[in-house]
Amino acid sequence: MADNESLVIGSKIKAYIKTKGLMCSGDLAEAVSNLVREALDKAAERTQSNKRSTVRPHDL
Fold first, then answer.
1. Into how many domains does the chain fold?
2. d(C-alpha 47, C-alpha 60), whole Å
3. Is residue 1 part of a domain?
4. CA–CA dist 48, 37 (Å, integer)
5. Tens-place pLDDT, residues 9-21
6. Which of 14, 16, 22, 33 to pair with 52, CA 20 to 30 A apart?
7. Cα–Cα distance between 53 and 47 in angstroms, integer?
């Protein structure tokens, strides 16, 4: 998987923001994807440091 490949669905983000009565910029999905990638990287590091091979919700 490429580092710049999106991990989120832009249309779902847009729809969610719309339920809040707001609009979103075109680059919001990329920013959200970057946050998700950072969180998953940290979770993977924690998993490995605990000598496990399964990332669990509490690793986030």
1. 1
2. 10
3. no
4. 16
5. 999 999 999 999 9
6. 33
7. 7
